[in-house]
Each structure stands twice: as C-alpha cells, then as structure tokens.
Amino acid sequence: MPIPAGWPTTETQALAEQERLRPLVRAHDDAELPGRLIAGVDVAYDDEHDLVAAAAVLLDRNTLDVVEQATAVGRIAFPYVPGLLAFRELPAVLDALAALKQTPDTVVCDGYGLAHPRRLGLASHLGVHTGLRTLGVAKTPFTFHHTDPGPERGAWSPLTDPATGEEVGRAVRTRPGVKPVYVSVGHRIGLDTAVRTTLELATRYRLPETTRHADSLCRRALADALRTRTPSN
Predict the structure, then answer these.
(1) What is the DSSP letter of 47?
(2) 208 vs 230, which has greater pLDDT?
C-alpha cells in the first residue's frame, strides 16, 4: 500500500489541505436516499514498526449481517499530530474501501466529522475525498463540551464548541445507563440522520456494529502483518 503521490508530509501542508477541503463539506441530507449497504472503517497502528492496518466491513443495514470485508496494510503516512489524524489514517482506509467489490451507500468512521477544531475530521475528509455519504461516531468528545444525556437509549445532548457555542455533534446514549458515543456529520448527511443511523446500528452494544466489526478486523490484520515481519525464535 503506497502512500498517495502528493500526500501532505508536514503539518503546514496538512493544515492548508484541511482549509481547502472544509468548504466542500455538505452537512445536510442530500436528495439520494440511503441504500442497503453501510460500511464501517477503522485502523490499528504499530508505530514501532511503522505499520498501519485499515479495515472496511460492509453490512446489510436491514439485517446487520456482514456482506463483505477487506483490509489494507502499509506504512504510516503522517506523524502523530492531534487534529491531523486523518492524514495518518486515510490512505489505508481508501485502500481498504477500494478493495471492496461493492460500493457502500454510507460509511461510518470511528472518529470525528465536523466535531473537529477545523470542522474536517476523518469522516468529513473521507466524504469529500470520495463523494461518499459519511458520518463519524467517536468514543470520546475530543475538546468539545456537552451535558450528560438522559439515561435512556436514544437520549442525546448537543456537543458544542466552547469557543463559538456551535453545535458540532451530539452525545448519544446507545445503551441504557452506558456512557454515550459522540456522533457528528461527515458529508452528505444531516445530524438528525447521523444520530438515527447510529442508533439503528447500535442495537446490542454501545458502539455501532459497523465499528465493532471493523475494529476487530483491522486489529487482526495488523497482528497478521506483524507476524509475517517478525521472525520466530
């Protein structure tokens, strides 16, 4: 998995690319209705060996059965810089998605979309780059504020930027009494639809089934890659 030609290699280049792409995000539902296929993407790293593994798992959104899955393993494309994680993850994610035989109608990212200091987290970056409908479902609220949503499944509270007061996402309770997940728009989707989609995918656990499958698969792919690179004693 080669790093794409022209991929940013410095913080300055990456910040400029985020500023260029940010106005292209469409933070609303488009006219095209969501289809049956919904993908989850996730990545796992081993910085010591300069390896990243990405997984794309395609589910039938009506049954939540796995339809197809693919992985990609390669060199880490960018150093660790908070707020610029998409530049580490996106090349591998793009390769994993490209390895699928079918194109997803929606992609759920384990991370942020508009809930990002420059409003361009991985979900938004991926959506603008590919044209796919995307949303982000994160495990933590990053730098944003929220009140605790009600204890019942489906309860939510706004995730707001402390600097502007802008709603950038929602803290959503997917399981009664379990800590919330943090949902934000990626591209070509509205926040209400992103929340509703997350709840449809999180029927038994805190995290959406898309994320759970992709997380497990990318960890296995990374472990397999490390075994082939590390001679046994």
Answers:
(1) G
(2) 208
